[in-house]
Design goal:
Number of helices of chain B: 13
Helix content of chain B: over 70%
Oligomer: heterodimer
Radius of gyration of chain B: 25 Å
Strand order of the largest sheet of chain A: 6-7-8-3-9-10
CATH class of the largest domain in chain B: Mainly Alpha
Number of domains of chain B: 2
Order of helices and strands of chain B: HHHHHHHHHHHHH
Shape of chain A: elongated
Strand content of chain A: 35-45%
Number of strands of chain A: 20
Structural class of chain B: mainly alpha
Distance between the termini of chain A: 34 Å
CATH superfamily of the largest domain in chain B: MetI-like
Largest sheet of chain B: none
Structural class of chain A: alpha+beta
Largest sheet of chain A: 6 strands, mixed
Helix content of chain A: 10-25%
Number of strands of chain B: 0
Radius of gyration of chain A: 24 Å
Shape of chain B: globular
Chain lengths: 367, 294
């Protein structure tokens, strides 16, 4: 696959504040790339740099080998979908979709078939004569999409396009967007702070923090192999065991939490020593009533809270050496009760060793 | 959550006691009503009545307005000055309001302050200040001569130019504030959206921003037109008797030639024009606030 867009050491400073700090990334043609991060992480600055609204203080942006760092937005032929849709309120749906063709010099008659196709793509042909105010939020969002797709942009940039919609509608539009991406085959660059949205839609995710890319990878890679505590915390929920490395090689590790020793065997184990954290997903932990049924890695504790979420329980177990651990248990397992003494266990291939211990800044945006 | 449900009706609307029509309520309404009727409505009606009764009963005064050449000239001059003033005020006001809508909040506060500042200075002082600046031996002429740009002082007062300068200066805040208020309602992402869709900065302005600011422009235009049609001090002083607008003409008929019938009929005409413009403005303002288009 060829690279559609490349960032080379792009930095953007606003006075003393560094919005983008030496960011390099290759986005491939046809890819659904998500820029995920808390507010202030630089994801919107990055998108606006791609769109041509923000000029980098240093570095280069190239499209298919051609430098576009200083090209004005209207010369880029990129589609940009704004958070608030940015439909023109004085124009009808039809005129809104016609607008990009109009500024490209097409007459109404020449544009007619293209506008019609775009409106059919989003199934809103019957609302062509309405004004944006007369449409629901979801419909407005679809018109905004049609308006950007009508001129076949080389890239489609989406700035938190679903954040203004309610949860149920957001789910529908997520599916629709993903479907649209597959049908039109355009590169999508999608900005969001919603980790679920990022996980379910993206080919790849770039996690941003303080103007830097913290980690880049497929949703599965990021979820299963987070590189830092921040990523493990931001993408899904994690328990962090305060651990100390006691030994190991490239594929195995032994570590202690409190006085007990635990085993870790993975394809590759990062070379760490001293004080580390073991990130464990709640679904990787299991509850056991008796010692013999539990895996070798286990910690005793007492259930302090049980929450019921339909298809699963979320259980908080208070342990002496590892603090409170969150465990998800399937319905149908023995029902956990507050006050039960249990073993929390995990297989030796579970757990991701990460440098350091969680700090407040890692935690600030969790959830 | 039963407590929420129970309290909901109580907080959902204003307390009914607020609208109980007791004695105090009517007194509060009556007081300003009486005030307006005696000090505002009665004189206005008296003016209208005089216009058809002085010196004799009938529409004679209105016939004079339609026939008299001097009055026609005054009306024509008034119309001309008002139109040019409105045009220039809108032009400069639009630029200022646009700039205000684009700058940072901090700069915006300063610009606001400077615009409002002019309200603090009386129109009389401002008019005399303009005379000091524009007169033949005034600041501007002296400066231009000193710079060697001109040999003879330019005539900038006691003519249309002086009157228009003074009026535009006075009217600018009245245009800037409604224009700015309207521009604040325009979604800031629309122009970037237009540019992302392929429009140049100029094109995006003319196809998106300008059409959306039209309600504000229309409102400001009518407001300035209404105010400037009744201008008295500025044309009287900066025009120096050479530029006579309708308000000054009415004043002369009232206090010097004592043709009260003619003065009141002209005043009535002026009032009707202003009334018509006000109605037009309220319609534009409604369109603006409802955000309807087409």
């Amino acid at each position: 696959m060829k690279d559609a867009l490349r960032f080379q050491s792009v930095t953007k400073k606003y006075g003393e504040f560094t919005a983008l700090d030496d960011v390099s990334i290759d986005i491939q043609s046809g890819e659904f790339m998500t820029l995920l991060g808390p507010s202030g992480s630089g994801k919107t600055t990055m998108l606006m740099t791609i769109g041509g609204f923000v000029e980098p203080s240093a570095g280069q942006v190239t499209l298919d080998g051609t430098e576009i760092t200083h090209l004005p937005p209207e010369k880029r032929n990129f589609g940009l979908v704004f958070q608030g849709y940015a439909l023109f309120p004085h124009l009808t749906v039809w005129e809104n979709v016609f607008y990009p063709l109009r500024v490209r010099g097409l007459s109404k008659t020449d544009a007619e078939p293209k506008v019609r196709d775009a409106l059919e793509l989003i199934q809103l042909s019957h609302l062509a004569e309405r004004y944006p105010k007369q449409l629901s939020g979801g419909q407005q969002q679809r018109v905004a999409l049609a308006r950007t797709l009508v001129f076949s942009p080389e890239l489609l940039l989406l700035d938190e396009p679903l954040s203004a919609l309610d949860r149920a509608l957001r789910k529908d539009l997520q599916r629709e967007l993903k479907d649209l991406h597959e049908r039109v085959g355009t590169t999508f660059i999608y900005v969001t702070h919603d980790q679920e949205e990022a996980l379910s839609m993206s080919d790849r995710i770039a996690i941003l923090r303080d103007g830097r890319i913290e980690q880049l990878g497929t949703p599965l890679e990021l979820y299963e192999n987070p590189a830092t505590i921040f990523v493990a915390n931001f993408l899904g929920k994690s328990n962090f065991l305060p651990a100390r490395v006691t030994g190991g090689d490239g594929s195995a590790m032994t570590y202690t939490v409190g006085d007990s020793e635990f085993q870790l065997t993975r394809d590759r184990v990062p070379n760490l020593d001293g004080e580390i954290s073991i990130a464990l997903r709640p679904e990787r932990l299991s509850l056991h009533g008796a010692t013999d049924a539990a895996p070798v890695n286990r910690i005793p504790g007492e259930i302090t809270k049980v929450s019921y979420y339909g298809q699963l329980y979320e259980v908080i177990v208070k342990t002496e050496s590892a603090g409170n651990l969150m465990v998800t248990a399937n319905i149908g397992d023995e029902q956990p009760r507050t006050g039960d003494r249990v073993w929390v266990g995990w297989e030796s291939d579970s757990g991701m060793p990460l440098a350091g211990r969680p700090t407040e800044t890692d935690d600030a945006y969790a959830g | 959550m039963p407590t929420l449900v129970e309290t909901a009706p109580a907080v959902s609307g204003p307390s009914p006691s607020m609208f109980r029509k007791n004695g105090a309520y009517w007194f509060m309404v009556l007081l300003p009503a009486v005030f307006l009727a005696t000090l505002y409505l009665a004189p206005v009606i008296s003016v209208m009545v005089r216009s058809v009764t002085e010196p004799v009963l009938g529409l004679g005064n209105y016939a004079v307005i339609l026939e008299n050449r001097a009055i026609q000239n005054v009306l024509g001059k008034t119309f001309y000055i008002c139109t040019v003033t409105t045009g220039l005020t809108l032009f400069f006001g639009y630029i200022t309001a646009y700039a205000m809508s684009q700058v940072s909040p901090r700069e915006q506060r300063w610009m606001f302050f400077l615009v409002i500042l002019s309200f603090w200075i009386s129109v009389l002082i401002r008019t005399f200040a303009w005379i000091a600046v524009l007169q033949p031996r005034g600041l501007l002429n002296e400066a231009l001569i000193w710079l060697g740009l001109i040999d003879q002082p330019l005539r900038m007062v006691r003519n249309d130019f002086g009157v228009i300068v003074g009026m535009v200066h006075y009217m600018l805040p009245y245009a800037i504030l409604p224009l700015f208020a309207n521009m604040q309602t325009i979604d800031r992402s629309l122009v970037p959206a237009a540019r992302a869709l392929g429009a140049s900065a100029r094109r995006a302005f003319f196809t998106v921003f300008l059409p959306l600011s039209l309600p504000g422009l229309a409102g400001a235009a009518i407001l300035v037109l209404i105010f400037s049609s009744g201008f008295y001090i500025t044309p009287a002083l900066l025009g120096g008797g050479k530029v006579v607008m309708v308000a000054e003409y009415i004043s002369v008929q009232m206090s010097e030639t004592l043709k009260w019938g003619l003065a009141t009929s002209l005043a009535t005409c002026l009032m009707l024009v202003v009334l018509a413009l006000t109605i037009a403005m309220s319609r534009f303002m409604d369109v603006g606030s409802a955000g309807k288009s087409g």
